[in-house]
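Priority: medium. Attachment 1 of 2:
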């Protein structure tokens, strides 16, 4: 068992006075390329990271504080607090509550249960800790109640939880990645058909490290221009008589102007870049993959306008130090950026970034190195 899974198990036993019936865990993700394309029906290429949220689940009938009738109880080891199922309260517990609600909406009966959570996905930095808690909850409940829901449907349920319960209008990438990514691979997902395939990503063989920089600029999706970007894309699609910008071509762009033109130009070019990036990965041409990463960043900065001075500084430093590729990852507006850096040069590179951030008077960034990890799993 992984450390997070062990911690969830111990916490469950401590809080509920019995052994859990099972423990499941799900990872955060970084998106390698394909940003703000998911809610436009386009392509994304995320990979799971080796940071996870685990949940131990059982009936919880023996706990000392339990009253009748039995009620669902949720406990977080990291926040050291117990929450009930009933009331939405803008805490971490809204994610599992949302999943229970969305499973009910999908026609699955969820009887009372007890759950203990423990995780190590950095919170609020764009590595999808919320998708990880949703995916872990969904997979655990599916196994605990023997529902037999497929993983794609679980991802749809988790997205529903995020959109309609938590109230963030995100696409399906994060939940899908958390549930379906495989170790050692990225996942090419067609967000319209929800068909996906793993694309092997052996960074070690290529002598490259995936460096993630957390700019420490927190971004709450609900408070940002995320919903505004989404609305502009929907407007642009309507102006073109299309259901989604996925179907727009470069020639269609001539019919648009101002914000609609810029946002649509990003989506059209980014979808093409994802497919080119997959081709480059499949033949192991990382230089081309890196060039596409830089191009993606420029498009997110200039056309989609979701970058920040911190993210731009990271990418510029990467370029100056000869990194293979770099770009912001996730929604933007702060959060994280990634770079592919020759393995022997990562320390020098992160030092240079720290120095560049200090010179600009930015917060000290945090760095992680990840290898593509496994998606959600039931541990026992
Ligand atoms: C956030 C959302 C995703 C996706 C990205 C941008 O991570 O949760 O659905 O839209 O932003 O690519």
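Attachment 2 of 2:
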């Amino acid at each position: 068992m992984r450390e997070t899974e062990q911690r969830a198990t111990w916490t469950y036993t401590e809080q509920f006075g019995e052994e859990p019936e099972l423990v499941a865990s799900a990872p955060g993700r970084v998106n390698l390329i394909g940003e703000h394309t998911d809610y436009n029906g386009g392509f994304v290429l995320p990979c799971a990271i080796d940071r996870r949220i685990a949940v131990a689940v059982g009936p919880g009938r023996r706990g000392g504080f339990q009253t009748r009738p039995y009620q669902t109880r949720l406990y977080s080891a990291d926040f050291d607090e117990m929450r009930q199922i009933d009331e939405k309260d803008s805490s971490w517990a809204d994610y599992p509550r949302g999943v229970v609600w969305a499973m009910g909406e999908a026609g699955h009966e969820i009887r009372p249960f007890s759950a203990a959570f423990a995780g190590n996905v950095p919170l609020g930095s764009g590595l999808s800790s919320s998708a990880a808690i949703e995916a872990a909850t969904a997979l655990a409940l599916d196994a605990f109640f023997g529902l037999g829901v497929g993983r794609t449907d679980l991802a749809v349920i988790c997205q529903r939880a995020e959109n309609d319960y938590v109230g963030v209008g995100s696409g399906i990438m994060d939940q899908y990645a958390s549930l379906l990514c495989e170790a050692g691979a990225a996942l090419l997902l067609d967000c319209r058909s929800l068909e996906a395939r793993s694309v092997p990503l052996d960074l070690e063989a290529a002598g490259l490290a995936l460096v993630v920089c957390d700019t420490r600029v927190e971004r709450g999706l609900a408070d940002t221009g995320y919903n505004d970007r989404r609305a502009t894309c929907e407007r642009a699609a309507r102006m073109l008589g299309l259901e989604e910008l996925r179907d727009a071509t470069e020639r269609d762009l001539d019919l648009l102007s101002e914000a609609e033109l810029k946002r649509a130009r990003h989506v059209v070019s980014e979808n093409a870049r994802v497919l080119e990036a997959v081709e480059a990965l499949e033949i192991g041409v990382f230089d081309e993959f890196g060039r596409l990463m830089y191009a993606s960043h420029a498009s997110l900065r200039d056309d989609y306008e979701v970058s920040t001075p911190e993210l731009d500084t990271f990418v510029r430093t990467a370029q100056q130090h000869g990194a293979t590729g770099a770009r912001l990852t996730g929604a933007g507006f702060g959060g994280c950026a990634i770079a592919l850096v020759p393995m022997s040069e990562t320390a020098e590179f992160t030092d240079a970034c720290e120095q560049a951030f200090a010179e600009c008077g930015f917060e000290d960034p945090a760095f992680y190195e990840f290898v593509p990890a496994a998606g959600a799993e039931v541990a026992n």
